Amino acid sequence: MIDQKGGDKVFIARQPIFNEQLEVYGYELLFRLTHHSNQFGGVSSRGATAAVITGLFESGIENIVEDKLAFINFDEIFIHSNAIELIKPDRLVVEMLEKIKINDILLERLKIIKEKGYKIALDDFEEDYQSYPLTSLADIIKYDLMITPLETIKNDVILAIKQGKILLAEKVETQNEFRQAKNMGFSLFQGYFFSKPIIAGYSASKSLTKNQYFLLISELKKEDPSYNVLADLIQQDVTLAYQVVRMASVRAKHDFVTSIQFALTYIGLNKIERWLNILMLHDLVKDKPLELMKISIIRSRFAESLARRANMTVSSQHEASMMGLFSVLDGILDQSMDDALKGISIPPSIYDALLKERGFLYPIYQLMLAYEKGDWKTTSRVSQELNIEEHILYHDYRKAIQWANEVLLSIS
């Protein structure tokens, strides 16, 4: 959690921004001061922005946005602060809030910022494109499709593209909206369209892969798992067998890994189960944005940490981890969540959280999603219900991002 002078702290979450190839272009950072019920709690956005900028500088911006761009909101007051320069121009997009007060001093400041190499974005743009004073200074224009439907901005889009503007579609919730915006000329996209299932695109090969992995998971869930059964299943896939042996070799050091059974004893069943869960999603997500895989891994670690903070049992923490990991399985498999979880031997608590919106894991699921989406009201309410101190959430979230990056590196 980032501290501010005066004792306030700031929540920070992130939302991915994709290019046309569904590669992550950057992350919009969502934040608010704690101990308040609304977005900024009666405190100007300047305070929250200042805390975010200084916190990113102190802790390392790469720990939250990796090697991508950070999109951060600025108001007409904080835009004049030299704190902006704590973050290099090639890592920061300056987002001007939609209700910003425009005057000559602001226009001159934005010109200076552009000269220093920073990109400027207009957030939730719904003004008249030709007459709005900031349009000429903007590099990126963000249209919220809930506020400005695509059919209402066709002429503005044509003009903006002619002038070399980068257009970003926000609140893109369906694949159809993504395709429409892309066809119109938008090149950046933000929303949860990438995590929604496309039932028509369901692949039989994905089903086969899923079944193979869940046979392994089902065996691991037994009271007395058989190393021989596990080894036989693993040996059916040469790539999987190779990865198991490679992972065991790191732990075996000078000993030879003479069999899959031997490798499993070195790794340990608990670690094998967690690794297989992640590896399964890695294999299933091949024709999906990598960010979908990354989100599942972040959620896995974040949910586990939330369960631990809520003083749940160790077994419940493991279930929370699997719940977080499988929370995007519908989008990966292009099935409903109900179909995706059929035939899988997983604890009822995971079914209840993902399908029934009930059970002891459901508050963990709620808090995980609320924090990720920047729903700070729900974040505060559920964290209080779970008796989790709010100030620890950003720490655990940042650690989850770091762990996800390490995991993806190890299995790539």
Automatic annotation (TrEMBL):
One Pfam family here = EAL
Q: Which superkingdom, per the lineage?
A: Bacteria
Occurrences of domain HDOD (ranges) = 206-392
Which residues belong to any copy of the EAL domain?
1-211
Known InterPro entries for this protein? dGMP_Pdiesterase_EAL/HD-GYP (IPR014408), EAL_dom (IPR001633), EAL_sf (IPR035919), HDOD (IPR013976), RNase_Y/CdgJ (IPR052340)
* SMART domains noted in UniProt: EAL
Q: What name goes with this protein? A: Diguanylate phosphodiesterase
UniProt source species = Acetobacterium woodii (strain ATCC 29683 / DSM 1030 / JCM 2381 / KCTC 1655 / WB1)
